[in-house]
Amino acid sequence: NAGVMQNPRHLVRRRGQEARLRCSPMKGHSHVYWYRQLPEEGLKFMVYLQKENIIDESGMPKERFSAEFPKEGPSILRIQQVVRGDSAAYFCASSPTESNQPQHFGDGTRLSIL
Amino acid sequence: DQQVKQNSPSLSVQEGRISILNCDYTNSMFDYFLWYKKYPAEGPTFLISISSIKDKNEDGRFTVFLNKSAKHLSLHIVPSQPGDSAVYFCAASARVDSNYQLIWGAGTKLIIKP
Predict the structure, then answer these.
(1) Does A1 sit within 8 Å of B45, measured CB to CB?
(2) Smallest Cα–Cα separation from B94: which of A66, A56, A61?
(3) CA-CA distance, A45 to A91, in Å (whole number)?
(4) ω before A8 within 30° of 0 (cis)?
(5) Which stretches of chain B sit within 8 Å of chain A by CB?
(6) Confidence of residue B22 (pLDDT cuts 50, 70, 90)
(7) pLDDT tens-digit profile of B36-71?
(8) How many alpha carbons fall within 13 Å on the CB side of residue A69?
(9) Most buried of the four, A54, B59, B89, B97, by CB within 10 Å?
(10) How many CB pairs under 8 A join A and B?
C-alpha cells in the first residue's frame, strides 16, 4: 500500500462534531476514489474525483458529506455533524487514469463516533 | 441489491492445498473483474484481474477463472501458504455514463491452517 497516504489512521469524534479525512494519492495519480467499509461488509463506493472536479458522487450521502480534491494538497472527505452510524473504515484509492486500471489503496482511516 | 456476491464469509484450507474463492455477479454489463487481498488494518491490495473477453488469467500461484454464462468467477490459489490468510474481495467494473465504477463483494476470509 506504499504510495497512497491517508491520515489520520484513527479518528475519534463525538456526535455532532466534524470529521476531516485526508488522502494523498500516489505520485503521478490524478484520480482519487473514496470508499466506506462498514463492519462485516465490502467496500462501498462513495465518490470519484479528479483535480478540482467531482466526477461521480453517486455513492455519497446527500447530506453532511462532502469531498474535494484541490489543485494543491490532498483530497479531503468531510463529514459534518457526525452520527454513530458514520463509524466505519474510510479508504482512499488512486489511479493514474480513468480506466479499468487497478486502483491503489491507502491503509484507511478508522472513524469512531462516541 | 447486491450486484457482486461472495457467498462464503470464510474458508479454511490446509497449507499446501488449493484454495478456491468464489464470486457471483448479476450485471451482464460488467466487463472487467478484479481480486483484492486485504490484511487487518491495511488497505486492499490488488492481486489479479481478468477481462470479460478471457476465461482464464494466471499469475504465479493465482489463477482467476471467468464463466460469463454462469456469471461466476473464481480465484484459485495453489499451493496455499500461511501468508495467504487474509480477506479476499472480488470487484467488478462497468462503465456507468462516462465513468468506470467498481462494485465490490462483501469479502471472504481465507484461513490457511498449518
Answers:
(1) yes
(2) A56
(3) 10
(4) yes
(5) 4, 6, 9, 31-32, 34, 36, 41-46, 49, 51, 89, 93, 96-97, 99-107
(6) very high
(7) 999 988 999 999 999 999 999 999 999 999 999 999
(8) 23
(9) B89
(10) 63
Phi then psi for residue B37, to 5 deg, are: -120, 140
Mean pLDDT of A54-70: 93
* Residue B68 burial by Cβ neighbours in a 10 Å radius (0-12, 13-18, 19+): middle
Please give the grid coordinates belonging to residue B96: 456507468
Minimal Cα–Cα distance from B44 to chain A, Å? 6
Which of the residues A92, A100, A101, A112 would you substitute to probe the B interface, choosing the one with the greatest number of B C-beta atoms within 10 Å? A100
